[in-house]
Write a structure and sequence with these properties.
Blueprint: H1 2-28, E1 33-37, E2 43-47, H2 60-70, E3 78-84, E4 87-92, H3 100-111, E5 118-124, E6 157-163, E7 166-169, H4 178-187, E8 191-196, H5 201-218, E9 223-229, E10 239-242, H6 247-256, H7 260-275, H8 281-294, H9 317-327, E11 335-337, E12 340-347, E13 350-359, E14 363-372, H10 378-389
Parallel strand pairs: 4-5, 5-9
Antiparallel strand pairs: 1-2, 1-14, 3-4, 3-10, 6-7, 6-8, 11-12, 12-13, 13-14
Helix pairs in contact: 1-10, 2-6, 2-7, 2-9, 3-5, 6-7, 7-8
Length: about 400
Protein backbone atom coordinates (compact mmCIF):
# COMPACT_ATOMS: atom_id res chain seq x y z
CA UNK A 1 0.00 0.00 0.00
CA UNK A 2 2.77 2.43 1.02
CA UNK A 3 4.72 1.60 -2.14
CA UNK A 4 1.64 2.40 -4.29
CA UNK A 5 1.17 5.76 -2.58
CA UNK A 6 4.82 6.71 -3.12
CA UNK A 7 4.53 5.78 -6.80
CA UNK A 8 1.37 7.90 -7.15
CA UNK A 9 3.02 10.94 -5.53
CA UNK A 10 6.02 10.55 -7.86
CA UNK A 11 3.72 10.51 -10.89
CA UNK A 12 1.51 13.47 -9.91
CA UNK A 13 3.82 16.29 -11.09
CA UNK A 14 4.13 14.64 -14.48
CA UNK A 15 0.38 14.17 -14.71
CA UNK A 16 -0.23 17.83 -13.87
CA UNK A 17 2.34 18.95 -16.42
CA UNK A 18 0.74 16.83 -19.10
CA UNK A 19 -2.62 18.41 -18.23
CA UNK A 20 -1.60 22.03 -18.76
CA UNK A 21 0.46 21.17 -21.81
CA UNK A 22 -2.55 19.47 -23.34
CA UNK A 23 -4.72 22.54 -22.65
CA UNK A 24 -2.13 24.80 -24.27
CA UNK A 25 -1.86 22.58 -27.36
CA UNK A 26 -5.62 22.58 -27.86
CA UNK A 27 -5.86 26.34 -27.49
CA UNK A 28 -2.90 26.98 -29.79
CA UNK A 29 -4.21 24.85 -32.63
CA UNK A 30 -2.12 23.14 -35.27
CA UNK A 31 -0.39 26.32 -36.48
CA UNK A 32 0.04 28.14 -33.18
CA UNK A 33 3.42 28.98 -31.69
CA UNK A 34 3.89 28.78 -27.94
CA UNK A 35 7.37 29.01 -26.45
CA UNK A 36 7.89 29.10 -22.68
CA UNK A 37 11.08 29.23 -20.62
CA UNK A 38 11.48 28.98 -16.86
CA UNK A 39 13.60 31.36 -14.78
CA UNK A 40 16.75 29.34 -15.48
CA UNK A 41 16.12 29.36 -19.24
CA UNK A 42 14.91 25.78 -19.45
CA UNK A 43 12.27 25.15 -22.11
CA UNK A 44 8.93 24.20 -20.60
CA UNK A 45 6.99 23.99 -23.85
CA UNK A 46 7.85 24.56 -27.50
CA UNK A 47 4.97 24.45 -29.97
CA UNK A 48 6.06 25.51 -33.41
CA UNK A 49 9.62 24.15 -33.23
CA UNK A 50 11.33 27.41 -34.11
CA UNK A 51 8.94 28.29 -36.95
CA UNK A 52 8.98 31.98 -37.79
CA UNK A 53 5.86 34.14 -37.71
CA UNK A 54 4.69 37.74 -38.06
CA UNK A 55 5.33 39.26 -34.63
CA UNK A 56 3.03 42.27 -35.11
CA UNK A 57 3.42 44.71 -32.20
CA UNK A 58 5.46 42.26 -30.13
CA UNK A 59 8.29 43.66 -32.28
CA UNK A 60 8.09 46.86 -30.23
CA UNK A 61 10.05 45.02 -27.52
CA UNK A 62 12.99 44.90 -29.93
CA UNK A 63 12.57 48.59 -30.77
CA UNK A 64 12.62 49.27 -27.03
CA UNK A 65 15.88 47.31 -26.77
CA UNK A 66 17.38 49.36 -29.60
CA UNK A 67 16.36 52.58 -27.84
CA UNK A 68 17.97 51.35 -24.64
CA UNK A 69 21.19 50.51 -26.48
CA UNK A 70 21.57 53.53 -28.76
CA UNK A 71 19.55 56.43 -27.32
CA UNK A 72 19.81 55.59 -23.63
CA UNK A 73 16.72 55.53 -21.45
CA UNK A 74 17.86 58.68 -19.65
CA UNK A 75 18.28 60.58 -22.92
CA UNK A 76 15.94 63.32 -24.12
CA UNK A 77 14.90 64.41 -27.59
CA UNK A 78 15.85 67.98 -28.44
CA UNK A 79 14.39 70.74 -30.60
CA UNK A 80 16.60 73.72 -31.47
CA UNK A 81 15.72 77.38 -32.16
CA UNK A 82 17.41 80.34 -33.84
CA UNK A 83 16.34 83.80 -35.06
CA UNK A 84 17.41 84.74 -38.58
CA UNK A 85 16.20 87.69 -40.65
CA UNK A 86 13.29 88.25 -38.29
CA UNK A 87 12.11 84.64 -38.52
CA UNK A 88 12.16 81.98 -35.79
CA UNK A 89 13.98 78.92 -37.16
CA UNK A 90 12.98 75.55 -35.68
CA UNK A 91 15.01 72.38 -36.19
CA UNK A 92 13.59 69.10 -34.90
CA UNK A 93 15.30 65.79 -34.21
CA UNK A 94 12.32 63.46 -34.32
CA UNK A 95 10.92 64.17 -30.86
CA UNK A 96 7.83 61.93 -30.58
CA UNK A 97 6.43 64.02 -27.70
CA UNK A 98 6.64 67.56 -29.03
CA UNK A 99 3.14 68.16 -27.70
CA UNK A 100 1.26 71.34 -26.79
CA UNK A 101 2.46 71.32 -23.18
CA UNK A 102 6.09 71.22 -24.38
CA UNK A 103 5.38 74.11 -26.76
CA UNK A 104 4.14 76.15 -23.78
CA UNK A 105 7.49 75.57 -22.07
CA UNK A 106 9.33 76.47 -25.26
CA UNK A 107 7.37 79.70 -25.65
CA UNK A 108 8.07 80.66 -22.05
CA UNK A 109 11.80 79.96 -22.48
CA UNK A 110 12.04 81.85 -25.78
CA UNK A 111 10.03 84.91 -24.77
CA UNK A 112 12.90 86.72 -23.07
CA UNK A 113 15.53 85.53 -25.55
CA UNK A 114 13.94 86.94 -28.69
CA UNK A 115 15.23 90.24 -30.08
CA UNK A 116 11.74 91.55 -30.85
CA UNK A 117 8.72 90.87 -33.03
CA UNK A 118 8.94 87.95 -35.47
CA UNK A 119 7.71 87.80 -39.04
CA UNK A 120 6.95 84.09 -38.77
CA UNK A 121 8.45 80.63 -38.46
CA UNK A 122 10.93 78.62 -40.56
CA UNK A 123 10.81 74.84 -40.15
CA UNK A 124 13.92 72.71 -40.73
CA UNK A 125 12.87 69.05 -40.82
CA UNK A 126 16.03 67.85 -42.57
CA UNK A 127 16.98 65.49 -39.71
CA UNK A 128 14.61 63.00 -41.36
CA UNK A 129 14.91 62.36 -45.09
CA UNK A 130 12.07 63.36 -47.41
CA UNK A 131 9.67 60.69 -48.56
CA UNK A 132 10.10 58.10 -45.80
CA UNK A 133 7.53 55.37 -46.39
CA UNK A 134 7.04 52.93 -43.51
CA UNK A 135 5.85 49.50 -44.72
CA UNK A 136 2.35 48.81 -43.43
CA UNK A 137 1.43 52.45 -42.74
CA UNK A 138 -1.65 53.39 -44.78
CA UNK A 139 -3.28 56.58 -45.97
CA UNK A 140 -6.31 56.53 -43.67
CA UNK A 141 -7.37 59.34 -41.32
CA UNK A 142 -6.45 57.21 -38.31
CA UNK A 143 -3.78 58.57 -35.93
CA UNK A 144 -1.69 55.40 -36.35
CA UNK A 145 -1.21 56.33 -40.02
CA UNK A 146 0.29 59.73 -39.16
CA UNK A 147 3.36 60.79 -41.10
CA UNK A 148 6.70 60.40 -39.32
CA UNK A 149 8.77 63.57 -39.45
CA UNK A 150 11.65 65.35 -37.75
CA UNK A 151 9.41 68.23 -36.62
CA UNK A 152 6.15 66.71 -35.47
CA UNK A 153 3.74 68.43 -33.07
CA UNK A 154 1.02 66.51 -31.25
CA UNK A 155 1.94 63.26 -33.02
CA UNK A 156 1.06 64.91 -36.35
CA UNK A 157 -2.61 64.69 -35.43
CA UNK A 158 -5.39 67.18 -34.80
CA UNK A 159 -8.14 66.75 -32.24
CA UNK A 160 -11.26 68.78 -32.94
CA UNK A 161 -14.94 69.00 -32.13
CA UNK A 162 -17.44 69.97 -34.83
CA UNK A 163 -20.91 70.98 -33.75
CA UNK A 164 -23.50 73.08 -35.56
CA UNK A 165 -21.01 73.82 -38.29
CA UNK A 166 -18.53 75.29 -35.80
CA UNK A 167 -15.06 73.79 -35.45
CA UNK A 168 -13.19 74.11 -32.16
CA UNK A 169 -10.15 72.42 -30.67
CA UNK A 170 -11.04 69.43 -28.50
CA UNK A 171 -8.06 70.22 -26.25
CA UNK A 172 -7.78 73.23 -23.96
CA UNK A 173 -4.01 73.23 -24.38
CA UNK A 174 -4.10 73.25 -28.19
CA UNK A 175 -5.39 76.31 -30.07
CA UNK A 176 -7.15 75.72 -33.37
CA UNK A 177 -4.87 76.78 -36.20
CA UNK A 178 -5.96 77.70 -39.74
CA UNK A 179 -4.57 74.46 -41.17
CA UNK A 180 -6.25 72.33 -38.51
CA UNK A 181 -9.55 74.02 -39.32
CA UNK A 182 -9.11 73.40 -43.05
CA UNK A 183 -8.23 69.76 -42.46
CA UNK A 184 -11.30 69.22 -40.26
CA UNK A 185 -13.52 70.85 -42.89
CA UNK A 186 -12.04 68.84 -45.75
CA UNK A 187 -12.40 65.55 -43.87
CA UNK A 188 -16.04 66.22 -43.00
CA UNK A 189 -15.56 65.58 -39.29
CA UNK A 190 -18.70 65.45 -37.17
CA UNK A 191 -18.59 65.45 -33.41
CA UNK A 192 -15.28 64.94 -31.62
CA UNK A 193 -12.48 63.14 -33.42
CA UNK A 194 -8.69 62.88 -33.53
CA UNK A 195 -7.29 62.30 -36.99
CA UNK A 196 -3.85 62.33 -38.52
CA UNK A 197 -2.99 65.72 -39.92
CA UNK A 198 -1.95 64.90 -43.46
CA UNK A 199 0.15 62.65 -45.66
CA UNK A 200 1.76 65.77 -47.14
CA UNK A 201 5.07 66.80 -45.51
CA UNK A 202 4.44 70.49 -46.16
CA UNK A 203 1.16 70.34 -44.23
CA UNK A 204 3.04 68.78 -41.32
CA UNK A 205 5.66 71.53 -41.39
CA UNK A 206 3.06 74.28 -41.74
CA UNK A 207 1.01 72.96 -38.82
CA UNK A 208 4.09 72.91 -36.60
CA UNK A 209 4.86 76.51 -37.60
CA UNK A 210 1.28 77.63 -36.97
CA UNK A 211 1.06 75.99 -33.56
CA UNK A 212 4.46 77.25 -32.41
CA UNK A 213 3.50 80.78 -33.53
CA UNK A 214 0.19 80.52 -31.68
CA UNK A 215 1.95 79.47 -28.49
CA UNK A 216 4.40 82.36 -28.76
CA UNK A 217 1.53 84.82 -29.24
CA UNK A 218 -0.15 83.40 -26.15
CA UNK A 219 3.10 84.09 -24.27
CA UNK A 220 3.02 87.72 -25.39
CA UNK A 221 5.34 87.58 -28.40
CA UNK A 222 4.34 89.34 -31.62
CA UNK A 223 4.54 86.81 -34.47
CA UNK A 224 3.43 87.29 -38.06
CA UNK A 225 1.85 84.71 -40.34
CA UNK A 226 4.90 83.97 -42.52
CA UNK A 227 5.92 80.33 -42.92
CA UNK A 228 8.86 78.80 -44.76
CA UNK A 229 10.67 75.52 -45.05
CA UNK A 230 14.37 76.20 -44.63
CA UNK A 231 17.73 75.16 -43.26
CA UNK A 232 18.89 76.08 -39.79
CA UNK A 233 21.99 78.26 -39.37
CA UNK A 234 25.32 76.59 -38.65
CA UNK A 235 25.70 78.78 -35.54
CA UNK A 236 24.94 77.82 -31.96
CA UNK A 237 21.17 77.77 -31.36
CA UNK A 238 19.52 80.54 -29.39
CA UNK A 239 17.75 77.87 -27.37
CA UNK A 240 17.89 74.07 -27.17
CA UNK A 241 14.78 72.50 -25.72
CA UNK A 242 15.19 69.08 -24.14
CA UNK A 243 11.83 67.37 -23.78
CA UNK A 244 10.65 66.97 -20.19
CA UNK A 245 10.03 63.30 -21.01
CA UNK A 246 12.98 60.95 -21.15
CA UNK A 247 13.51 58.29 -23.79
CA UNK A 248 12.35 55.84 -21.11
CA UNK A 249 8.97 57.57 -21.03
CA UNK A 250 8.75 57.44 -24.83
CA UNK A 251 9.53 53.72 -24.69
CA UNK A 252 6.88 53.25 -22.02
CA UNK A 253 4.34 55.02 -24.25
CA UNK A 254 5.15 52.99 -27.36
CA UNK A 255 4.84 49.77 -25.34
CA UNK A 256 1.89 50.66 -23.10
CA UNK A 257 -0.26 52.21 -25.81
CA UNK A 258 1.25 50.13 -28.62
CA UNK A 259 1.70 53.39 -30.49
CA UNK A 260 3.02 52.72 -33.99
CA UNK A 261 3.80 56.37 -34.67
CA UNK A 262 5.97 56.77 -31.55
CA UNK A 263 7.68 53.44 -32.23
CA UNK A 264 8.76 54.51 -35.70
CA UNK A 265 9.78 58.01 -34.56
CA UNK A 266 12.13 56.30 -32.09
CA UNK A 267 13.25 53.74 -34.68
CA UNK A 268 14.11 56.44 -37.23
CA UNK A 269 15.91 58.55 -34.63
CA UNK A 270 18.07 55.55 -33.76
CA UNK A 271 19.17 55.28 -37.40
CA UNK A 272 20.12 58.96 -37.53
CA UNK A 273 21.95 58.70 -34.20
CA UNK A 274 24.11 55.81 -35.37
CA UNK A 275 24.43 56.38 -39.13
CA UNK A 276 24.12 60.16 -39.29
CA UNK A 277 21.36 62.45 -40.49
CA UNK A 278 19.15 62.41 -42.37
CA UNK A 279 17.27 59.52 -40.86
CA UNK A 280 16.09 56.90 -43.34
CA UNK A 281 14.34 53.62 -42.87
CA UNK A 282 17.32 51.88 -44.46
CA UNK A 283 19.72 53.29 -41.86
CA UNK A 284 17.51 52.18 -38.99
CA UNK A 285 17.06 48.70 -40.45
CA UNK A 286 20.85 48.46 -40.83
CA UNK A 287 21.35 49.41 -37.17
CA UNK A 288 18.78 46.82 -36.14
CA UNK A 289 20.48 44.17 -38.26
CA UNK A 290 23.86 44.95 -36.70
CA UNK A 291 22.39 44.79 -33.19
CA UNK A 292 20.71 41.46 -33.87
CA UNK A 293 23.93 40.05 -35.32
CA UNK A 294 25.80 41.01 -32.12
CA UNK A 295 23.36 38.88 -30.11
CA UNK A 296 23.13 35.39 -31.68
CA UNK A 297 20.18 34.41 -29.51
CA UNK A 298 18.14 37.06 -31.33
CA UNK A 299 18.66 35.24 -34.64
CA UNK A 300 15.23 34.72 -36.15
CA UNK A 301 14.15 38.35 -35.78
CA UNK A 302 13.95 40.41 -38.97
CA UNK A 303 12.83 44.05 -38.90
CA UNK A 304 11.62 46.20 -41.77
CA UNK A 305 10.34 48.98 -39.46
CA UNK A 306 9.99 49.60 -35.74
CA UNK A 307 6.33 49.18 -34.83
CA UNK A 308 5.38 45.71 -36.07
CA UNK A 309 2.71 47.03 -38.43
CA UNK A 310 4.44 45.50 -41.46
CA UNK A 311 3.63 41.96 -42.52
CA UNK A 312 7.27 41.66 -43.65
CA UNK A 313 8.65 41.52 -40.09
CA UNK A 314 9.55 38.08 -38.75
CA UNK A 315 10.43 36.47 -35.43
CA UNK A 316 10.61 33.09 -33.73
CA UNK A 317 9.66 31.98 -30.25
CA UNK A 318 13.26 31.54 -29.04
CA UNK A 319 14.40 34.87 -30.51
CA UNK A 320 11.61 36.90 -28.90
CA UNK A 321 12.13 35.04 -25.62
CA UNK A 322 15.78 36.11 -25.81
CA UNK A 323 14.68 39.70 -26.39
CA UNK A 324 12.49 39.44 -23.29
CA UNK A 325 15.50 38.22 -21.30
CA UNK A 326 17.50 41.27 -22.41
CA UNK A 327 14.61 43.62 -21.57
CA UNK A 328 13.73 42.02 -18.22
CA UNK A 329 15.26 44.83 -16.15
CA UNK A 330 12.87 47.27 -17.84
CA UNK A 331 9.71 45.15 -17.90
CA UNK A 332 8.04 47.77 -15.68
CA UNK A 333 7.75 49.91 -18.83
CA UNK A 334 5.30 47.38 -20.26
CA UNK A 335 1.58 47.31 -19.74
CA UNK A 336 0.60 44.78 -17.08
CA UNK A 337 -2.50 43.35 -18.71
CA UNK A 338 -4.15 40.60 -16.65
CA UNK A 339 -1.38 41.30 -14.10
CA UNK A 340 1.20 40.16 -16.66
CA UNK A 341 3.87 42.58 -17.96
CA UNK A 342 3.49 41.90 -21.66
CA UNK A 343 3.26 43.16 -25.22
CA UNK A 344 0.42 42.09 -27.45
CA UNK A 345 0.45 41.92 -31.22
CA UNK A 346 -2.66 42.39 -33.34
CA UNK A 347 -2.98 42.20 -37.11
CA UNK A 348 -5.76 40.70 -39.19
CA UNK A 349 -3.82 37.46 -39.67
CA UNK A 350 -2.38 37.09 -36.19
CA UNK A 351 -3.06 37.67 -32.51
CA UNK A 352 -0.11 37.30 -30.17
CA UNK A 353 1.35 38.16 -26.79
CA UNK A 354 4.77 37.90 -25.15
CA UNK A 355 5.78 38.70 -21.61
CA UNK A 356 6.66 37.61 -18.11
CA UNK A 357 4.58 35.42 -15.80
CA UNK A 358 5.25 34.88 -12.10
CA UNK A 359 4.80 31.22 -11.19
CA UNK A 360 5.03 29.14 -8.02
CA UNK A 361 7.28 26.37 -9.31
CA UNK A 362 9.30 27.94 -12.11
CA UNK A 363 9.95 31.52 -11.01
CA UNK A 364 9.55 34.29 -13.59
CA UNK A 365 8.56 32.54 -16.79
CA UNK A 366 9.12 34.14 -20.20
CA UNK A 367 6.51 33.26 -22.82
CA UNK A 368 5.85 33.95 -26.49
CA UNK A 369 2.47 33.13 -28.03
CA UNK A 370 1.56 33.66 -31.69
CA UNK A 371 -1.81 32.48 -32.99
CA UNK A 372 -3.97 32.96 -36.06
CA UNK A 373 -6.24 35.93 -36.64
CA UNK A 374 -8.99 34.41 -34.50
CA UNK A 375 -6.77 34.04 -31.45
CA UNK A 376 -7.57 37.28 -29.62
CA UNK A 377 -9.14 35.56 -26.60
CA UNK A 378 -7.25 32.28 -26.89
CA UNK A 379 -3.86 33.94 -26.36
CA UNK A 380 -5.00 35.01 -22.89
CA UNK A 381 -6.59 31.63 -22.23
CA UNK A 382 -3.16 30.14 -22.90
CA UNK A 383 -1.62 32.59 -20.42
CA UNK A 384 -4.23 31.49 -17.87
CA UNK A 385 -3.40 27.84 -18.58
CA UNK A 386 0.28 28.58 -18.01
CA UNK A 387 -0.53 30.39 -14.79
CA UNK A 388 -2.62 27.47 -13.53
CA UNK A 389 -0.16 24.78 -14.60
CA UNK A 390 3.11 26.35 -13.55
Amino acid sequence: MMRSMILLLWLLPGLALAGWQDDVKKLAGADGVVYVLDEQGQVLIDLGEGRDFIPASMLKVVTALLATEYLGLDGRFETWFWVRDGMLVVKGHGDPFLVSEELDLIAAALKDKLPGALKGVVVDDSYFADGIVVPGVGDSDNPYDALNSAVAVNFNTVNVTVSGGKIVSAEDQTPLTPLAERVATARGIKGKERINLSQQPDDVRRYAAELIAAKLRAAGVTVGEAYERGTAPATEPLYKHANTRTVSESVHALLYYSNNYIANQVFLAIGAQEKGAPATLEKSVAVAREFLAKHPKLAGISMTEGSGISYENRATGPSLAAALAMFAAHKGLMRAKHDVPSKTGTLKVTKSVAGYLETKEHGTVRFVISLDGAGSNRRWQIVDALRAGL
